# Entry
Amino acid sequence: GNSVTQMEGPVTLSEEAFLTINCTYTATGYPSLFWYVQYPGEGLQLLLKATKADDKGSNKGFEATYRKETTSFHLEKGSVQVSDSAVYFCALNTNSGNTPLVFGKGTRLSVIA
Amino acid sequence: GAGVSQTPSNKVTEKGKYVELRCDPISGHTALYWYRQSLGQGPEFLIYFQGTGAADDSGLPNDRFFAVRPEGSVSTLKIQRTERGDSAVYLCASSQMGQGYGYTFGSGTRLTVV
# Structure
């Protein structure tokens, strides 16, 4: 079946530090990959996505590249800000019957000034 | 509407009672999804509608849970004989059809069973 594994948090960084949150997946078929973000007190928001191998999704300074050879979709940002403090979820779906999104457990990021 | 609307935002109920949670999706989105999120966990899939029909209800934990979408727009998640373990945030999302479309989530309903 489909599954997503992401690094456990919490992750605590100083402002302007480099961020990597690892995500690997197992999927049947050809998955589309997503990162969602949940800011404190708010709902889940789509951060970025990639729909085929070697695609790079990017938004708000965050990037993730769809690596089929390593079944990974790691989230990166070159310089984090306090406002990036949130919980980040990696997710996938496949073209096998339009399956619903499968989420990882989430990684909590805290950025301190 | 402009976004996915879920009501109520909070619901406290006594063990054994019946509850209904409502979701109003984005206009024109044919797919509607219900998820459940427990503290410290990722969203867990419950059921998915394509139009009026439940295309996949494999995530419903047991027969106390049921959902409907009679006119292909608003959906109601119904929980009978609530248990304390049902306490969670219930999330609704809608999307256009197709694998590469992301979902738009509502703010969720926080259900607490006491």
Remarks:
- Chain A touches chain B through 26 residues (CB under 8 Å).
- The mean pLDDT of chain A is 93.
- The longest strand of chain A covers residues 86-93.
- The radius of gyration of chain A is 14 Å.
